[in-house]
Structure formats: structure tokens, C-alpha cells
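Action item from last week, closing it out:
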Amino acid sequence: MGKKSSFFKKIRISYNAPVTLTFALTAVLIMVLNALLKGTLIPAFFTVPGGAGSSAPFNIHVPLDYLRLVLHIFGHADWNHLVSNLSFILLLGPVIEERYGSPVLALMMLVTSLVTGVLNACFSPLPMLGSSDIAFMMILLTSFTSISKNEIPLSFILILILYVGRELFARPSDQNIATLAHIAGGLCGSMFAFLAMPKAASRKNGTAQKKQDDRNKSSDEGCSRTVKNKPAPEEDDSTVVGSIEL
């Protein structure tokens, strides 16, 4: 009994991916508050306006519209929409956050949401909400498990074709789930994968090369110290040829 209690005492819940978990908890909290406020919170603060032909166009004179360009990733149409996106984000986010770091992932999400929001406000006839762009960005980032200068993973190509094709040929009733968001998020993910991964790899290779150079340097210094500390042979004026001493 004592062993079982000590075993459970050692188990603790860790906040292993702060950016991913904070994002997910915030999105859930906003959905709860939106339900308590009878569906008025998300349309007012967490929905990107559409373009000039939209029923709710973007207004350059309203400061809140600029915030909504980024905040739309926290709002969702319903619980199914939220769960669908969070299932990808919670699965892939910790892996990406460990690989790139929390600040870089937060920057990726910010840029992706801003790019998607601006495109929707400029070209889309419909308002947009949801984190579909973030989920798609993470899908493409995760597919880049091994990037080299002359190599593109086949998994990336297949995912790109499947998801972009699905969005392009979606039924008209599905267009409000942000066709533009998926494509723009995927492009941002591809850009981050190409830009960030080589730098991370170069730092890793540079660190490994530095360690190897340090080991070689230490080895050379050890050899030189051994040679330096080795007593020099006593000088002899005699000349030796073979075994005959003259």
C-alpha cells in the first residue's frame, strides 16, 4: 500500500506546452462565455469582417476591426468546430513547440492569423472565425520531419494536395469554414518550415562541430603536454653507427 501511494505521489501534471495549452484553454473559455452571453461575444470580438461586398465589411476607422484580424483564431462557430481544430492543435502543437520553442511558435501563430485575417478582410465576401489556419499550419510543419537542401518529404506534398484540394472543391455551404484560412495557414506553415528548420539544423550542426573541434583541441593539447613533459634524452657526444660505437 505504501509503494502505491509513493508511486502516485511522484506523478504530476506538467504544463508541457505553454503556448499550445494557453491557446486551447482560452478558446474553450471564450466558447463558454459566448454561451453564457447568448452568442453575442464571438461575433462582436472574435470574427474577422469580410471585404467590401460583405454584409459586415472591414472598417478602417474602427480600432476593434484591427484586433479582430488576429483574435479570430479564438472564436469558433460551435463546439464541433472547436473540437475539430483543437484535436489537431493539441496533438501537434506540443511537438512543434518543443522543436521550435514557445516564442517562435507564438510568432508563427500570430503571423498566420494576421495574414489570414488581412486576406479575408480584403477578398472574402463572408466574415471568418476559427483556428483552422493554425491547425493546417501545424499539420504542414509537422510533416517536415527531415528537411535538407535538396529534399522535400513526400508526406508534405501529399498533405498539401489533399487539404488544398479539399478546400478548393468544398461545397458552397462549407465555405464559411474558411477556405482561405486553410490555404493561407498552410502557406505560412510551409514558409516557416523552410525558414526556421535550416537555421535550427545549422545551429545543431554548428554546436556538434564546435564540440568536435573542442575535443580535437583538447586531444592535441594533451599530446603536446605529454611530449613537452617527457624528459629529453641525455646528449651524448659519441657517434653511433648500428651497434658499433666509435
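Closing note: The longest strand covers residues 240-241.
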